[in-house]
Design a protein that fits this description.
The chain has 412 residues and is an alpha/beta fold. It folds into 2 domains: 5-162, Malic enzyme, N-terminal domain (Rossmann fold, 3-Layer(aba) Sandwich); 168-412, NAD(P)-binding Rossmann-like Domain (Rossmann fold). The protein is 42% helix and 11% strand. The chain has 17 helices and 10 strands. The strands form 2 sheets. The protein has a 6-stranded mixed beta sheet with strand order 7-6-5-8-9-10, covered by helices on one side.
């Protein structure tokens, strides 16, 4: 669906976020409690015990949505200021879906040359986030280009005692894994028995591969713009090299033959109907490039006519959408509820499993009413829950919180 530019800009006038006051400020006593002299007691409490900030400030439910504007949606490097509408949108989703308070934190001049565009200096982003961290209970990194995003997240996660989560890396990975889990269920296979071929080895692709492996997948062949990521290649960065395999296939078209699952986070139209026809007997095609997928669902339907298959995209106008709003609000909700020090792999896998299990349950009538053109029953056309299923807020955070406790990263 196309939206008129003026209509969109009118919606955005004044911004999409604002400060709401959870405490009254109507009397002299209220003023003395909120500010001077009463606030001194809260200051001293934190000075005596740093953890008191979780109780006497907004920290317990506040997430910073941080971007340097180097990879804004599919628009590229447009600078920190241009990232703000997206970061505001992210904050809206945090609040609407999981009641997490979030605030945009655009970081300008984090480039190697000090200008508003150009390659990111990871250390500048790290230093900036470290400086603001005392206010927040978590940090959601957003729209930061690879490979800088890997270093930024890894170093911040080690340095800070609050969750640091780059949604462009992990959000798609968590939701994709839930879909792979349910595909395996429908196929009657264990994750370890699946043959997966991926196209796209950027931030999202690398993390999808890692998530699948963490859940039990063994056979994953990744491809980038130069072909399969093989051990005999000498042009691989460290993140790609970790997933290099021994294979005679040199191209995506060669690698995909006989595959159970194709996962694409790359570019439009890199697959043909002939390619998917050469996949396994019951294939799953996760074509998640936006706005145009690696292969159109209509072309898949034509190529696989008469065969059972699963089709997944990143678009809301097709069934089985990989939508990050199914992940990040609930991962942070669960982490904040137990004051977790990180969002570790076990917590991410727990979220994916919770999503997969929910999709197998009967769908409430109010959710079905929002999607009158779809049959919301577990099967090839419905393997991923819908974003407006309000059960998500109870089920996914609970699974994340339990995983945090089980792995020893929960304070509560």
């Amino acid at each position: 669906m196309a939206y008129d530019r003026e209509e969109v800009l009118k919606y955005h006038i004044g911004g999409k976020v604002a400060v709401a006051l959870p405490k009254p400020l109507k009397t002299k006593d209220d003023l003395c409690l909120a500010y001077t002299p009463g606030v001194a007691h809260a200051v001293k409490a934190i000075a005596e015990n740093r953890d008191a900030a979780w109780d006497v400030t907004a920290k317990r439910n506040l997430v910073a949505v941080v971007s340097d504007g180097t990879a804004i949606l599919g628009l590229g490097d447009l600078g920190a200021a241009a990232s703000v509408p997206v970061m505001e949108g992210k904050a809206v989703l945090f609040k609407a879906f999981a009641d997490v308070d979030a605030w945009p934190v655009p970081l300008a001049h984090c480039r190697k040359d000090g200008k508003d565009t150009g390659p990111t200096d990871p250390q500048r982003v790290i230093d900036a986030v470290m400086a603001i961290a005392p206010q927040y209970g978590g940090v959601n990194l957003e729209d930061i280009a690879a490979p800088a995003c890997f270093e930024i997240e890894d170093k911040l996660d080690k340095a800070l005692d609050i969750p640091v989560f780059h949604d462009d890396q992990w959000g798609t990975a968590v939701i994709s894994l839930s879909g792979v889990m349910n595909y395996a269920k429908l196929a009657g296979k264990e994750l370890k028995d699946l043959k997966i071929v991926m196209n796209g080895a950027g931030a999202a692709g690398i993390r999808i591969c890692e998530m699948c492996k963490a859940a039990g997948v063994v056979d994953v062949t990744m491809c980038d713009s130069k072909g399969t990521i093989r051990r005999d290649r000498t042009d691989l960065n460290p993140y790609k090299a970790r997933h290099a395999v021994d294979t005679t296939a040199k191209t995506l078209k060669e690698a995909i033959v006989g595959a159970d699952v194709f996962i694409g986070v790359s570019a439009a139209n890199v697959l043909s109907g002939e390619d998917v026809a050469k996949m396994g007997e019951f294939p799953a095609i996760f074509a998640m490039a936006n706005p145009d997928p690696e292969i159109a669902p209509e072309e898949v339907a034509k190529a696989l006519k008469g065969r059972k298959y699963v089709m997944v995209t990143g678009r809301s106008d097709y069934p089985n959408q990989i939508n990050n709003v199914l992940g990040f609000p609930y991962l942070f909700r669960g982490a904040l509820d137990v004051r977790a020090t990180t969002i570790n792999t076990e917590m991410k896998v727990a979220a994916a499993n919770a999503l997969a299990m929910l999709a197998r349950e009967s769908v409430p009538d109010d959710v079905k009413a929002l999607y009158p053109d779809e049959t919301l029953e577990f099967g090839t056309g419905y393997i991923i829950p819908k974003p407006f299923d309000r059960r998500l807020k109870d089920i996914v955070p609970a699974a994340v919180a339990e995983a945090a406790r089980r792995t020893g990263v929960a304070r509560l």
